[in-house]
Specification:
The chain is mostly helical. The chain contains five helices and no strands.
Length: 127
Amino acid sequence: MPRTPSATQASVILGSLYLAYQAYQQVSLADASTLTLFLLYSSALSFFGIYIYIGYYLPLVKNIKLDFSNNKWRTTAPRLIQAATVSLITLYVTLSIVLSQGQAFHFLGFLVAAVLIAGVVAIAQLF
């Protein structure tokens, strides 16, 4: 069951939804290079794939619970966490590049990308 968001989570989620709507309306993917789009899509798919594998497949199908307290994940799934971190950083950088190329955000694309990713993380924390 999803939890009720706190006021901070709700504000981050609402802010990221608004910025996502503005980005959808004003940013064209035709301005981005093929390499940037490939990295954007592949890093997003790999991050969400690892998130689903760790958060749902391992606990529900394999009955393996990952304990993230006291750094116990270092022994149970070290490569998965590192791969998810690298893919999230790649997602942030490529999303920042795509948003900065549009006419809407210019140099603020890095901040907009940070708010968008914070909104995704806030939504993921509810489950």
